[in-house]
Amino acid sequence: MSFVIHSIARETQLYESMSTEELIKRINAALSMISEFENGTLQPNSLELGCVCCLLVSLSDEYANHQHWKTIEDLYAGVEPGSLKMEVLALRDDYLKDLI
Asked: Mind giving me the DSSP string for 36-83?
């Protein structure tokens, strides 16, 4: 599991060094990927989905949400994305709710 935690930490540090434009581009891509995953038009692998979820949680008011971090940890560990679909959608919805 330490590899998983190290990978997540590395991702969150990467976001801190990005320009606003790059972050906006990545956020839009993340939201698009999750929407396509929700609709069944895209089946991302667990690491791809974990990365976009990590981005959304890192930049939201949900940073302290342990359930969201557990979902991300499971995705980084290779858990099948389909089995975490409801958790991924809740994570996305919480991110969007924080924007309002």
From this structure: HHHHTS----HHHHHHHHHHHHHTSTTTT-HHHHHHHHHHHTT--GGG
